[in-house]
TrEMBL record:
Pyruvate binds at residues 44, 202. Pathway: Amino-acid biosynthesis; L-lysine biosynthesis via DAP pathway; (S)-tetrahydrodipicolinate from L-aspartate: step 3/4. One of its GO terms (cellular component) is cytosol. The record marks 43, 106 as: Part of a proton relay during catalysis. PROSITE patterns: DHDPS_2. The active site is at 132 (proton donor/acceptor), 160 (schiff-base intermediate with substrate). The keyword Amino-acid biosynthesis applies. It catalyses: L-aspartate 4-semialdehyde + pyruvate = (2S,4S)-4-hydroxy-2,3,4,5-tetrahydrodipicolinate + H2O + H(+). This is 4-hydroxy-tetrahydrodipicolinate synthase. It is found in: Cytoplasm.
């Protein structure tokens, strides 16, 4: 189930509300272009600004639009264990296939606290659990040793790794075994992670270039690293441009420029302006052959 490209979906808004029609169209575009799965309500989906009702709406919309064609990994993590359990049960109720569980942020638990947090969530659900290790945002890292303990829980299936450390990825593979899924959490790190035994990527860039990112990952997973490297370097300007400001500002702006949705965001995030917007436009123009055609949109 967890192999290939899983798009960390943006959440389209219009006039302050979730734009359900645009979200449905995004799901269809992703599936038509070969992604392996969808991840609603992650960081890229502006989850911190969504209400509980909106979380349910977004996850249920993606599940309904996907219609069983690809798995849906719902972001249901929290820095409160009780809230993470509550949201995970909600995602299970509306038909998600798995849950993405971020390390509790701001309160900086110990490794034992992290273990007990994730264990409690896993024990509350039948869903598969993908851990999300992104210390740059959360302020705390899940150690490979803690992951090895968590990997012994039957429904803890793997990790989205955003540490930018191949040493950490190597230790995860060494300690957690071959069955434990490792997904890159950063588009530029996808090929190195796959080379160390990773299974793919939870991608931001695939929001606007699903076909190209899928082709790159498929090539790498099939052992054709020459083709995968070629595509990596073709995609590299997009990888960089979509992070010139805080994610998801650039990718949502890019999606708007391509006609996929509006560029409406919720404070404290703001749409791009000025020099960065011009740089993004220029990269999109130069990368046109990697992007959906107007007919596809």
């Amino acid at each position: 189930m967890f192999r290939g490209v899983f798009t960390a979906l943006i959440t389209p808004f219009r006039n302050g509300e979730v734009d359900v029609e645009a979200l449905e169209n995004l799901v269809e575009l992703q599936i038509r272009n070969g992604v392996s799965g969808l991840v609603p309500c992650g960081t890229t989906g502006e989850t911190p600004t969504l209400s509980e009702e909106e979380d349910r709406l977004v996850i249920s919309t993606v599940v309904r639009a996907a219609d069983g064609r690809v798995p849906v990994i719902a972001g249901t993590g929290s820095n409160s264990t009780a809230s993470a359990v509550k949201y995970t049960k909600m995602a299970e109720e509306v038909g998600a296939d798995a849950s993405l569980q971020v390390a509790p942020y701001y309160n900086k638990p110990t490794q034992e606290g992290l273990y007990r947090h994730f264990a409690a969530v896993a024990e509350s659900t039948e869903l598969s659990i993908i851990l999300y290790n992104i210390p740059g945002r959360t302020g705390v890292a899940i150690s490979p040793e803690t992951m090895a303990r968590l990997a012994e829980i039957p429904n803890v299936a793997g990790v989205k790794d955003s540490t930018l450390s191949m040493s950490v990825v190597s230790d995860i593979r060494r300690l957690c075994g071959e069955e434990f899924v490792i997904l890159s959490g950063d588009d530029p790190m996808t090929l190195p992670v796959i080379s160390l035994g990773g299974a793919g990527v939870i991608s931001v860039v695939s929001n606007i270039a699903p076909g190209a990112v899928s082709e790159m990952v498929d090539a790498a997973l099939s052992g054709d690293f020459a083709r995968a490297r070629e595509l990596h370097y073709e995609l590299l300007p997009l990888f960089r441009a979509l992070f010139i400001e805080t994610n998801p500002i650039p990718v949502k702006t890019a999606a708007s420029l391509l006609g996929l949705c509006s560029d409406e965001m919720r404070l404290p995030l703001m749409p791009m302006t000025g020099d960065n917007l011009q740089k993004l436009r220029e990269v999109l123009e130069r990368s046109a052959d990697l992007l959906p055609t107007p007919e596809e949109v």
